Amino acid sequence: MKITLSFLQAADMLMNDPNANWGYSGAHALAEHLHQIEADTREEMELDLVAIRCDFARHDSLSDWAQDYFAKDKISSSLGFDDDDTDDEKNEKIREFIRDHGTLIEFNNGIIVSQF
Description:
By secondary structure, the protein is mainly alpha-helical. The protein has one domain (7-114). Helices cover 54% and strands 11% of the residues. It contains 6 helices and 3 strands, in the order αααβαααββ. It has a 3-stranded antiparallel β-sheet with strand order 1-3-2. Helix 1 crosses helix 2 (23-41).
């Protein structure tokens, strides 16, 4: 048996998942990402909240993700930061790293990154 969800229904289910912290904007960004995958592959997917929580994580910012992902003393060397890099340049290096290894979904109040 199968139920087809609208984009808004999927976003609501993500947002109301008690074991996730997507928030309103994050849930909508993630639902949009999943909808785009369906459109690109022309295959319907199952909305498995547990699998999504295992595959993606929300962070408040790119630098928060880097602090969570790398040991504190390894961030600069792992991401190739230079001493004179601005915050924007550091953020771009973090974006490039994430995109080279996984998926980055950016939205107004944070980011969602695929686990890799």
